[in-house]
Amino acid sequence: MRKHLGKIAAIGLAAVLAVAALAGCGSSGSGSAAASSGASASGSASAAAVQGGTLRFGCQNFSSGGIDPAVETNTAWNSSRYGILETLFKFNDDVQVVSCLADADNYTMSDDHKTWTFNIIPGIKFSSGADVTPSAVKASIDRLFKDGASGSTKPEQFLEKDAKITADDAAGTITIETKTAYPDLRANLADPAFGIVDVENTKDFANGIIGTGPYMVDTFTPDVGYTLKANPNYREPVPFETVELKYMDDAQAKANALLAGDIDMANDVANKSALEELKANSDFTVNIANGTRTGFAWVNFNKILKNDALRQAVMMGIDGQTVDDVTLGGLYGYGYSVLPSNLPFNYDKLTYKYGYDKEAAMKLLDDAGIKDSDGDGIRELDGQPVKLVWVTYENRGLGDIAEAGKQLLAEIGIDVDLQVVDSQKDWDLMVSGDYDLISQNWNVYIAGSPDTYLGNWDKGNEVNYCGYENDKYSEAYKALQTELDADKRLELITTMQQCLLDDAAVLVHGYYTASMISNSKTVANAPVHPLDYYWLTTEVTPAA
Amino acid sequence: MENKQNFFVKHKTFTIFSILGILVILAAIFAPVLTGGIDPTTGSLSEALKPPSSEHLFGTDKLGRDLFARVIYGARTSLIAAFSVVILAFVIGTVAGVLAGYFGKIVDAVIMRIADMMIAFPGMILAIAVAGIMGASIRNAVIAVALVTWPKYARLARSLVLKIRDRDYVSAAIVTGSKTPYMLLKYMLPSAITTLVITAAMDIGTMMLELAGLSFLGFGAVPPTPEWGLMLSEGRAYMTAAPWLMIFPGVAIFVVVVIFNMLGDSLRDILDPRQE
C-alpha cells in the first residue's frame, strides 16, 4: 500500500506540475505575446517595415511552393499570389477586367469574337531587365502550351491550343486568332495560368521564375518559404524591399505568429476563435471579403431526394444564416444561389421559396405523407425511415456545416448518415453518385465566367454528377455557350440560377470569405480581393 | 465473508480503484440519468460556445451541444471501445500464442512470423494505416488497435507455454492419453492466463489513450459521436476562445486512464506472486 501511496502521490504531483507548467505557458505565452507584439509594434518589426522594408508574410503552402504556371493550377496561383508573375489583364475588386501588361481599354476584336489584337503597354520590363515585348509574351504563351501539356493547369480551358498568335514588336501588338469564339478573351488571359514569364532569361522555372511582378525570387527553401526582393525594374515604387514569405498551414499557428509579432501579415485564418481574437485586438486589422467560392451540397436526384416535398423540406430545415454566422463565425457569407451574391450575376433579382422555416418544413412533410408513424423521431417515406447519406470532408468548414445540418434536420424528423471522408473519396463518391447530399466548395469563376461551373446542372453534361434535369436550364446553358452579348449572357445566367432555386436543386451553404490579417503597426494596408490569387500586390504597404 | 473482508482491507489500493472503476462504468451505464436526459448529439446552434454555467455545467460546444452530457456519454464510447480492444487482442493473442507454443514447428513459425510482421511497424502508425484504409469509425479503430496489439499477447502466451511444454508432468499427461483440447485447456492455458490477465488489465488505460489518439487524428470516432479524443480534436480550433472544450474531455481521459492503470497495477500486485 505504501508503494501505491507513493505512486498516487507521484501522479498527483505530476498532475500538479503539468497544470502549473500549462498555466505557466499560458501566462508567459500571453505575457510574452503582448510584450513581443508591443515590441514589434513599436520597435523591431515596425522599424523593419519602415527602415529595412521587410514584410514577414505567413501563408499556406500549396503544391510545395512551386511557381511555374505551366505545372499546376496551384503553382500558377502561387506565382500570382507571391507577386512574381503578372498577366496581360487582371480583375479588379468588382471582377471586371482591367489593364495590367496590356491595355484593357484599347484593343480590337472581330465581330465573330475570333480575332483579338491587344496592345502591350510600352516600357514594362521583366525583373531581369529585359523588355516585355509582344515576342516575349508570345514566347511565354508558347512555352505554357509546350511545358504545360502534361500539367494540371490545362491552359487550353482558357485558350484553344491551336490558337494562332502573332507578335508585332514594331506595332507593340499581339494578335490571337482562334476557331472558338470567346465572349471576352481578355478575362481568359487574366487567369494566373497566363502569367507572363521571361522565357529567355529564366533558368529555374520551378522556384526561380522571372516575371514582371513587384517582387522577384531571392532564395527558396522547401517547406520554409521564399525570400523575395523588390523588382528593381518595376514600373511603380515597390512597397517593401524584401518579403519573407513563411509557410504555415495551421490557422491557429498563423494567429499565434501574428500575436507573437513573428509575422506582419497572414492570409486566411480559417478558424473562428482565432479570427475573433484577432478582430478584438486593436493591434491587428482583419480584412474579410466574399470571394468567388461557393460552398454547396450536391443534391442527388437519382435517390430519395428526387421526392420534391422531401427535398424542399431539407432546404427549409437548414438555417444556413445561423450556421454561417454563428457556427462558422463568418467564414461563409450566407446566400441561396449557386453564384456568390457579390458577383455581378443579379443575385438581387432572384427569388427563393425554400428559405429556413422549420415549421413550414414539417408541415410540408406532413402534408406529403412523410410522417413519423412509429414514434422513433424519424419520418418514413414509403414505409422506410428517411435517412440521408450526407458526405463531406474537412475543408473550409464543410465538416461543421454538415454536422450542423445533421443536427437541424433531426429536428424536423430527418435522419442523416454523416460520412466525413478525405477529399479524394469525397470526389469519388460524387462521381459514383453514392450520396444524397455531398458538400463541396467550388471556385465558380473559372476563366472569368461561371460557364464551366454552371455545366454541373446541365442535363446530360459529363460533369452533371447529381442527375438534375430541367429543359429550361439546359436550353439556357446551351445558349450561353454561344452567346457573346454581355446583357443577354447575364439574362441567361439569371434564368439558370432561378431554375435551380425553384427546383430546390442545390443546397447552398454560402459564399466562402477570404481573409487577410495584418499588424496595424507594421502594415498600413493589406486588402483582400474577391479572387484569391491576388495576395502580395503593391496595395500591401508598410505603415508610415 | 470474513476472508473477503480481509481481502479488501488487505488490498486497499485495489479496493479503492475498483470502486472508482465501477463508478466510471456506472456513470457510463446511467449516463441518461446523470445528464438529466439531455441528448449529447443535439443542441441549439445559437447556444454555441457558451462557457460553463449552472445551465450547462461544462459549457457548450461549437454546435450548442451540452458538453457535460457529451463527456458523460463519451465514457460509454471510450469504455466499450477500450474493453473491446483488450478483449479482442487478449482472445486472439492468447489463442495464437498457446497454439504456437504447444504445437511448435510449422504452426509456431507461421503464427510468430505473422506476429513479427505486425510488430515490425510502430504500433500507432500501423493502426493509422489500418484505420485509414478501412475508413474512419470507432469500430474500425478498435479493429486497427486490436490488430497491432495481439502479437504482444501471442508472444507472452507462447513463452509461458514453452516454459512448461517439455515438463515431465506434461509429457506424463500426454502419455496417459490426454487429448489435445484437454491439454490446451487444462495445462497450457492455466499456466499462461494469470500473466495475460494482468497484462490485459494494465492495457485498458493504454488502449483508451490509443483510441482517443486515433479519434483525435480523425481515424476513429466520427462526428457527432461523443468521444473524448474527437472532442479534444474539435476543441483544438477553439483553444483560446473556449478552453473548456479541451479541458473537460482532457480531464476525463486523464482521470479514467489513471484509474484503470492503477487498477491494473494493483491487480498485478495481487495476482503476480513475484511482486510480493
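Residues 14-25+68-275 of chain B form a domain with the MetI-like fold fold (CATH 1.10.3720.10).
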